[in-house]
Specification:
Rossmann fold, 365 residues, five-stranded antiparallel sheet, OB fold (Dihydrolipoamide Acetyltransferase, E2P), 2 domains, ABC transporter ATP-binding protein
Length: 365
């Protein structure tokens, strides 16, 4: 399977702002790369440029050792010659064709013999668990079944690359979970290079070998899911990943909570006055009632419980600390009740600090 290399790629649709800005991204052979970000961040435009459905405005895009799009060199290889499989959010199945005919359509275009085509379709319908639906039409299938047909159609032609543009967004939560497991199995079984577009952080966290976070056309950070979660390079990335989202304390304000954090960090970083904010993930807190026994060298925030919200296997605790609301995750509710005084404890390694420009500042343990 080939690598994909985007070098200083720009996409502009004729406006003042670029849809994709100076993108440098290497997608390695066998990667399951998730392009993650909010709507309008440029992730779908990027995958469409890789597919050849959009042209590059500036820069160079290579697949393997072939330059497939470079305006300056007047080079462009059309989509059908890139050996790419693409699955859209809408699945784009032919409504007048049966499941078997939809899956085998690309093989027919490739002039594969009828016998070989039937064999390949049989293999894929069995693999995807849709053999009993092979004679049905798309309108007779559920969303999850249509998704499996779209994936089988893509796999049928043995593409070098698999591009998936938010393919699970139309499914309910249970089917999304099943299809995530199916996609992980397909990636492991076929060893394919996959580029997966999503705005859903949990899809990125559970599926990807690497994640590229984008915002307003600009690449923010690339790394493994846990690298990005544990060490976000800026406040945007930190805030975008996590449910409930990260808590932020504004260090430029003279609030009681900022004073406590400033005093705690003043013993660890050179110039705490240069901090713009600190972030704390809800699950990082140790939660307890007032006068909770404090471990050595630990930050303590004190407040009052506003509400305790069950989320299934855990509880989200909303607490007021001064004028600010802080959210913490507790694995056991225990005696926590609204109106109770509360202590929130954490170590320095669980604090994410950001400077006045919202870039990450390392906090020594």
């Amino acid at each position: 399977m080939p690598d994909i290399n985007l070098h200083n790629v720009v996409k502009n649709y004729g406006g003042e702002t670029n849809a994709v800005e100076s993108l440098d991204l290497q997608i390695d052979d066998g990667d399951f790369m998730c392009l993650l970000g909010p709507s309008g961040c440029g992730k779908t435009t990027t995958v469409r440029m890789i597919a050849g459905l959009e042209t590059v405005t500036e820069g160079r895009l290579s697949i393997g050792d072939r330059v497939v799009d470079e305006p300056r060199g007047s080079r462009f290889i059309s989509p059908e010659k890139r050996n790419i499989g693409l699955v859209f959010q809408s699945y784009a199945l032919w409504p007048h064709m049966s499941v078997a005919d939809n899956i085998g359509y690309g093989l027919k275009i490739q002039k594969m013999s009828s016998a070989e085509r039937v064999k390949r379709v049989d293999e894929l319908t069995a693999t995807m668990g849709i053999a009993k639906y092979r004679d049905r039409f798309p309108s007779q299938l559920s969303g999850g079944q249509q998704q499996r047909v779209a994936l089988a159609r893509m796999l049928a032609v043995n593409p070098d690359l698999m591009l998936l543009d938010e393919p699970l967004s139309n499914l309910d939560s249970r089917l999304r979970l099943e299809m995530r497991a199916e996609l992980k199995r397909i990636h492991a079984e076929y060893g394919a290079t996959v580029v997966f577009v999503t705005h859903d952080q949990w899809e990125a966290m559970t599926l990807a070998t690497r994640v590229a976070v984008m915002n307003e056309g600009v690449l923010q950070q690339v790394g493994s899911p846990m690298d990005i979660y544990d060490r976000p390079v800026n406040r945007f990335v930190a805030n975008f990943l996590g449910v409930p989202p990260m808590n932020f304390i504004d260090m430029t304000e003279q609030t009681p909570q900022a004073a406590v954090v400033r005093d705690f960090l003043g013993r660890r970083i050179e110039d705490p006055a240069q901090l713009g904010s600190v972030g704390i993930r809800p699950e990082s807190f140790t939660v307890g009632l007032r006068d909770l026994q404090q471990p050595t060298d630990c930050l303590r925030l004190t407040g009052r419980i506003e509400s305790v919200m069950p989320t299934g296997g855990s509880w989200t605790v909303e607490a007021s600390i001064g004028s600010q609301r802080i959210y913490a995750t507790a694995l056991q509710r225990g005696p926590l009740r609204a109106g109770d005084d509360i202590d929130l404890l954490l170590g320095s390694e669980q604090i994410h600090a950001f400077d006045l420009h919202e870039h990450r500042v390392e906090v020594p343990a």
